[in-house]
Write a structure and sequence with these properties.
single chain; 462 residues; mainly alpha; two-stranded antiparallel ribbon; globular; membrane; transmembrane helix; transmembrane; Amino acid transporter, AAT family
């Protein structure tokens, strides 16, 4: 049996009764978010990394490194006793410092030096500047390429742990297990990067680098654009669905499959199918609200912006889902698995709609972003992922301090490790599947019918 991750075997209990822990952690996380945003990202602040691609690249790679630490390496080389006995604040500082240090090694050592100086020029801003690219664009192009690699890694790294259950290395111990998963997922990420994004980088330069990449890209005809945002859309949806699968869905419905290898393969590719379907649906929803996209235009009428916005809408959904999982213990737990998952999904979507509206109405007032729905400098994924990173530091690295603490042995709750239970394929099971399928199809057409009306009500900027 695979040893549970530290995040799965630990038990957190409230320090205070009632809603006070939720309120404390919400205030704590938002305070850390705003202070760190002002220091690192805000265009009016100190470091001003919201250029926007430099700040975006930092967001994505910090997220990836935290996933490596918590999910792939299971906090190795730190022992379980250190994780349990170290004060949450000190632990948070040490693990966050380690995250930043590893990120700088990956950025400066692997991308900008090894790849940028000896293989592919666009990974190094210094190399691009020497070739005659204006310094600002050299930095942006390089950051864009590096963050696109991070977008893939933030999907595949957790997917191999939560969907493939770390197989075939699940029985190994750390650090062999961690390095095996890291090397394999990194290898797959390289392949996906070259297929999905290398052509995008090649067309940024004049003339297009047709001898080094496929130009125009293979997705041009059916995506309506040569821009790599088409791949950003479905890959971002993959990232979001992985975490829906792991958190508020509790790996349902794939957890019903008893045979391990079938369950793992079905989970891994099922996540991709769901994500691709979601990305096309969100693109279609924009056409229902704003009309057909027009190639050659800019902003919200342009196909490349709409594909980007698919990924942005997915992140708006992810944040309330993670908040519900971290601080509200998934919110709905009093019903059967199917009803719990359904109610959590509906609640997280409602939270996403509210967050979406509030963000575009107010973000420019306190984040230093540009006012406007589709402004070229408006990248909601950056502050949203930055906030998610702060939440992960609080929940993963600090055990939910200050509102929560690790449970003592005498009050320990059952380990919340995912259980895979056999489902009897009875007549009621098949009736449930048939009824659920029909209800899902009916709900789809109802939503498609209502979206133009809902979209009109949510149009924020005229």
């Amino acid at each position: 049996m695979e040893t549970p991750l530290y995040l799965e075997e630990r038990s957190l209990v409230k320090r205070f009764s009632g809603p006070l822990p939720i309120l404390l952690n919400t205030l704590f996380v938002l305070t850390l978010f705003y202070i760190s945003w002002w220091i690192f990202q805000d265009p009016r602040g100190i470091m001003r990394m919201y250029t926007p691609y430099v700040g975006y690249m930092w967001c994505r790679w910090l997220l990836v490194i935290m996933i490596w630490i918590a999910y792939i390496f299971d906090f190795w080389p730190f022992s379980r006793s250190w994780l349990k006995n170290t004060h949450p604040v000190l632990k948070g500082v040490i693990l966050t410092t380690l995250t930043v240090a590893l990120f700088m090694i990956v950025l400066k050592g692997f991308f900008e030096t090894i790849l940028g100086e000896y293989a592919i020029a666009y990974f190094s801003p210094e190399r691009l500047t020497k070739e005659g690219i204006v310094e600002f664009y050299a930095l942006e192009y390089s950051a864009q390429a590096i963050l696109m690699f991070a977008a893939i890694a933030s999907w595949l790294s957790p997917a191999w742990v939560v969907a493939m259950e770390s197989s075939p290395w699940d029985k190994l111990t750390q650090p062999v297990k961690g390095f095996s998963i890291l090397m394999f997922t990194f290898f797959i990420s390289v392949i996906v990067y070259f297929v999905a994004f290398h052509s995008h980088m090649a067309i940024l330069f004049d003339p297009w680098q047709k001898f080094a990449a496929i130009t125009p890209p293979w997705w041009e005809d059916f995506a309506g654009t040569v821009h790599g945002n088409f791949n950003i859309a479905w890959i971002m949806c993959c990232t979001v669905i992985v975490w829906m699968h792991e958190t508020i869905w509790e790996r349902y419905p794939f957890s019903m499959i008893e045979t391990p290898w079938i369950r793992r393969v079905a989970s891994f590719f099922g996540i991709i199918v769901i994500a691709v379907a979601l990305s096309f649906f969100l693109y279609f929803a924009q056409e229902l609200v704003w009309g057909e996209a027009i190639r050659g235009t800019r902003r919200d009428a342009s196909p490349d912006w709409r594909w980007l916005h698919v990924g942005e809408m997915a992140i708006f959904w992810l944040l309330p889902a993670l908040y519900m999982h971290f601080y509200m213990k998934n919110g709905f737990n009093a019903y059967g698995k199917v009803m719990n998952v359904f109610l959590r999904t509906v609640a997280s979507i409602a939270g996403a709609v509210v967050l979406y509206y509030v963000y575009y109405k107010t973000a420019h007032l306190f984040l230093g972003t540009q006012e406007g729905f589709s402004h070229p400098q408006q990248f909601p994924m950056i502050p949203l992922i930055w906030l998610i990173n702060i939440m992960l530091i609080n929940y993963w690295f600090m055990d939910g301090w200050p509102g929560w603490r690790l449970a003592e042995a005498s009050e320990k709750a059952p380990i919340t490790h995912v259980s895979y239970e056999r489902v009897a394929l009875s007549g009621s099971f098949y009736r449930g599947v048939a009824g659920g399928t029909l209800a899902g199809v009916a709900l789809y057409f109802v939503i498609v019918y209502l979206i133009p009306f809902m979209g009109s009500a949510l149009i924020i900027f005229k």
